[in-house]
Amino acid sequence: MTTIGLIGAGNIGSQIARKAIENGYDVVISNSRGPETLVDLVAELGPHARAVTVAEAAEAADIAVVTIPFGKYVDVPAAPLAGKVVIDTNNYYFERDGEFPAIDDGTATSSGLLQKHLKNSRVVKGFNHIKSTEITTDGTPSGTDNRRALAASSDFPDATAVLTDLYNTFGFETVDVGPLSESWRVQRDQPAYVIKQNAVELRTNLAKAVWPVAVRPPHES
Question: Could you tell me the pTM of the whole model?
Answer without folding.
Answer: 0.95
